[in-house]
Amino acid sequence: MKKTSVTFTVNGTKYSLDISPNETLLDVLRERLKLKDVKAGCLSGECGACTVLVNGKAMNSCLILAVEVDNTEIVTLRGLSRDEKLHPLQEAFIRESAIQCGFCTPGFILTAFSYLKENPKPSIQEIKKAIAGNLCRCGSYPNIIKAIYKVGAGNE
């Protein structure tokens, strides 16, 4: 199978890889770059566990072919931290006990990060709608919603 050269940046590090046309971004991030903060859940875009930011927009990495991310900036959960300091969303998830098993946490935080950039002061209903594509097996939704709400401008 013919490979395509792709260059992209992940969490501030530039990568140039030869990609097979059928490789998903999820596979490249987890298997080739060993970024285990990107979770492999349903593999069909239904759970949101594999959410990453592609040029600032939350996207399911299991639905994106890696050849489609040429010349993009990708951020995983690790990429939100700066100078060993957690992002306010990460801190809020800890503070509000929004983390149970932690499997869904990266997807929820990155989805919320992207959403709060567009709508910095959402209502509870708006948050529920924004995170509708993310599933939590542990049922931590009330705490997840509270964490996101409190990070919204003026809500803390």
Helix content: 25-40%
Question: Shape, please?
Answer: globular
Total count of domains: 2
As for the CATH topology of the largest domain, it is Ubiquitin-like (UB roll)
* CATH structural class of the largest domain: Alpha Beta
CA-atom Rg in angstroms: 16 Å
* Secondary structural class: alpha+beta
Strand content: 15-25%
- The span between the termini is 53 Å
Give the name of the CATH superfamily of the largest domain.
Answer: Beta-grasp domain
The CATH architecture classification of the largest domain is Roll
Note the main sheet: 5 strands, mixed
Polypeptide structure, described:
This protein has a 5-stranded mixed beta sheet with strand order 2-1-5-3-4, with helices on one face. 31% of the residues lie in helices and 16% in strands. It has 156 residues and is α+β, with helices and mostly antiparallel strands. It has 2 domains: 76 residues, Beta-grasp domain (Ubiquitin-like (UB roll), Roll); 64 residues, DNA polymerase, domain 1 (Orthogonal Bundle). The longest helix has 14 residues.
Q: Would you summarize the structure shown here?
A:
The protein has helices spanning 25-32, 88-95, 105-118, 124-130, 141-151, and strands at residues 4-10, 13-19, 51-54, 57-60, 73-75.
